[in-house]
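Chapter summary example: a protein plus adenosine-5'-diphosphate.
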Amino acid sequence: MSSLVDMKDITVEFPGVKALNKVNFQLLPGEIHVLLGENGAGKSTLVKVLSGIYKNNSGQIYLNGKSVVFNNAKDAMLNGINIVHQELNLIPHLSVAENIFLGREPIDNGIINWKKIYNDTEEIIKKLKINIDPKVKLRYLSVAQKQMVEIAKCVSQESKVIIFDEPTSSLTDK
Ligand SMILES: Nc1ncnc2c1ncn2[C@@H]1O[C@H](COP(=O)(O)OP(=O)(O)O)[C@@H](O)[C@H]1O
Ligand SMILES: [Mg+2]
């Protein structure tokens, strides 16, 4: 089987530190990988390169065998690569549903279809068995609830690759 993702000789340098030194990573369709390493090993940097947040100084990324360059996270998202970050990236004064559909709101005749946004959010929340009101503003949620919204947002997209960068560190066992 050919690789879905192939990262070749990825090097990333920050001022004074080489975070990644010719790292290779391959992902076949259907595979689940775990990146294991101590703090500062470069795990987040590697997945940030794959999700378009950091640019690699050298090396290549191939998607389905085709060389790709992601200039930002949206580029990666449009290619089906989505990431749940360790730190939260949600907007406090927007509702759960607004956050989940931020930047990809369904539009009918030039108008945002709010009914669909709230119905779809209801469905996603039910499916993931998280007990949160789609209409509540993010700032009223606990850190664990916010993190679950972040996860719901990610898994509800049309993804080929979903990256979890330690997003469960703030969750309880339940
Ligand atoms: N934006 C940045 N600017 C400068 N240095 C960074 C930045 N991001 C990560 N680093 C450095 O790169 C190295 C790898 O960090 P990181 O990828 O966050 O590791 P991990 O996720 O495995 O803990 C560390 O030395 C870290 O300090
Ligand atoms: Mg990290």
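Key point: The chain has two domains: 5-79, 82-174.
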